[in-house]
Amino acid sequence: MGADVIIVEPPRTPVVSFTLKTWALEDVGEVLHKSFGIVCRTGLHCAPLIHTYLGTSPTGTIRFSLSRFTTDKDIDYCISAIDAIVHATV
Question: Are the C-beta atoms of 50 and 39 separated by less than 8 Å?
Fold first, then answer.
């Protein structure tokens, strides 16, 4: 799809963290919010040292935090939004 998803070995929290090679993280966050109503977090997430380990320093990642209230429909919507951004249809 064009996204580089950060894979974390179990045990882990319900977080999806990724980057897009052709977009600045802050721009992705703004487009997700303004065009799709999706709130996410971008950057180093108060944990800059882990990004050196993950290879995502100095910019960080885009992060979705899931909860027990997150539905399959919510996840599908986020994937569609990211696909639209990757293919620049927004």
Answer: no
